[in-house]
Design brief:
- There is one protein chain.
- By secondary structure, this protein is mainly alpha-helical.
- It has three domains: 122 residues, Orthogonal Bundle (Fumarase C, Chain B, domain 1); 218 residues, Fumarase C, Chain A, domain 2 (Up-down Bundle), CATH 1.20.200; 58 residues, Fumarase/aspartase (C-terminal domain) (Ribonucleotide Reductase Protein R1, domain 1, Orthogonal Bundle), CATH 1.10.40.
- It is 58% helix and 8% strand.
- The chain has 17 helices and ten strands.
- A two-stranded antiparallel ribbon has the order 1-2.
- Strand 3 and strand 4 form a beta hairpin.
- Helix 11 packs antiparallel against helix 12.
- It starts with 6 loop residues before the first strand and ends in a 10-residue tail after the last helix.
């Protein structure tokens, strides 16, 4: 018995509950700890920051609307700021797989903030009569509008802090490499087969264009997420909240977080669905697919070094094999590929979560919020790592130019001079004999060496006539 953890008795609407003596959370949280011993997965730091920012702003708004005593509101504000700053993260023990509205986590925040605020005011933890988690901390709110608002805000913070800057930086690096390699020719490939020549710089311009469009897609995601549910309370009607409350709260949050959040124009859709989260996830998934393509292309173009394509050389960052000495693998690209795959998988779970909207509420909010924040964070981190540790040090090799002259699709440049059928016959003969297109054309056609030089100039083939 001496090794048992000390407890204190707290109360909620269901009665008494023993909670750890040193915990800031209370009875409702402890019930959820016991009810959901599922995965060990927890809400991420940015979600807790979002929740803290919302509770802090709510306290100030309620104070300014004369709905909370100033001394009480200031203590709640201070405690909520500690949540936002990460000082109380250990007080959020709840599993992601919990009540589908996230009510348990909203009450977790309410109880932690209430007990910490009571402590700030000189009372002990559990002094429910000093600062009440529902009447004071949750005033003007419901889990049903706070949790979706916190999800939107957390994803917006992750976009602002991680993925947006990573995409911009990668775009810049790809544009720099495109300019650097503009004068390097290589064989194009379609269907994994040799195609007409292309500049290495043009290949990289395509990748940079994907990132430019990724920026637009993420801007669309931010627009979708900027409209939030706060103010709708239980079912979207706004019962028990002041008409000015959501606007005041969101103005404070926007100012202090550097991301725009504003009250939805239709509270019923904002709480009945996760449509905005599903839409934003689709944009993030598209960016992940773009990044996967870029990482995989660069990995393949750098394959070798002797028996692969080898047209690019990427930085060697670590030994690649526990058995083959000297082997080096494209591990930075592989990390991004895996992160991209996880984002695609998360998106499917988010789509399924969006389908679980019944009547006035969605009941897969924790799952959707966790997955989308994770998607943005891991994709941003992996893209930033790929840019700095792979793309920035990438080089074009001599192998690309060396292979161009032997490419069979070079014959495409002769089509305007001799026609498609005769050009096809030349390509087939070159493939059969091992000769170059130039050598066969010199033997089989009346084209002069000067005409062949012009028709088979690979750089002329990289732009319209």
């Amino acid at each position: 018995m001496g090794n048992q953890e000390k407890t204190r008795t707290e109360r909620d609407s269901m009665g008494e509950m023993e909670v750890p003596a040193n915990a800031y959370y209370g009875a409702s949280t402890q019930r959820a700890v016991l009810n959901f011993p599922i995965s060990g997965l927890r809400f991420p730091r940015r979600f807790l920051r979002a929740l803290g920012l919302l509770k802090s702003a709510a306290a100030r708004a309620n104070r300014d609307l004369s709905l909370l005593d100033a001394r009480l509101a200031d203590a709640i504000d201070r405690a909520a700021c500690e949540v936002a700053e990460g000082k109380l993260d250990a007080e959020f023990p709840l599993d992601i797989f919990q009540t589908g509205s996230g009510t348990s986590t909203n009450m977790n925040a309410n109880e932690v903030i209430a007990n910490r605020a009571a402590e700030i005011l000189g009372a002990g933890r559990g002094a429910r009569g000093v600062v009440h988690p529902n009447d004071h901390v949750n005033r003007g709110q419901s889990s049903n509008d706070v949790i979706p608002t916190a999800i939107h805000l957390a994803v917006l913070l992750a976009l602002h802090d991680v993925l947006d800057p990573a995409v911009r930086r990668l775009r810049d690096l790809l544009e720099e490499k495109s300019s650097e390699f503009w004068g390097v020719i290589k064989t194009g490939r379609t269907h994994l087969q040799d195609a007409t020549p292309i500049r290495v710089g043009q290949v990289l311009r395509g990748y940079a264009g994907q990132m430019e469009r990724a920026e637009s897609r993420l801007a669309h995601a931010r627009e979708e997420l900027s409209w939030v549910a706060l103010g709708g309370t239980a079912v979207g009607t706004g019962i028990n909240t002041h008409r000015e409350f959501p606007g005041r709260v969101l103005e404070i949050v926007s100012r202090e977080s550097s991301v725009l959040v504003r009250e939805t124009t239709n509270h019923f859709q904002a709480q009945q669905t996760l449509d905005a989260v599903v839409e934003a996830s689709g944009s993030v998934r598209t960016v992940a697919v773009s990044l996967l393509k870029i990482a995989n292309d660069i990995r393949l173009l750098a394959s070798g070094p002797r028996c692969g394509i080898g047209e690019l050389a990427i930085p060697e960052v670590q030994p690649g094999s526990s058995i083959m000495p000297g082997k080096v693998n494209p591990v930075i690209a592989e990390a991004l590929i895996q992160a991209s795959a996880q984002v695609v998988a998360n998106d499917l779970a988010i789509v399924q979560a969006g389908q679980w909207s019944f009547f006035e509420l969605n009941t897969m909010m924790p799952l959707a919020g966790y997955n989308l924040v994770q998607s943005v964070e891991i994709l941003g981190a992996a893209a930033a790592n790929f840019g700095e540790r792979c793309v920035a040090g990438m080089r074009a090799t001599e192998r690309g130019p060396e292979l161009v002259e032997r490419g069979l699709s070079m014959v495409t440049g002769l089509v305007p001079l001799i026609g498609y059928d005769e050009a096809a016959a030349i390509a087939k003969e070159a493939a059969r004999s091992g000769k170059t297109v130039r050598e066969v054309a010199l033997e089989k056609t009346k084209l002069t060496p000067a005409q062949l030089d012009e028709g088979l100039d690979p750089f002329r083939m990289t732009e319209p006539d």
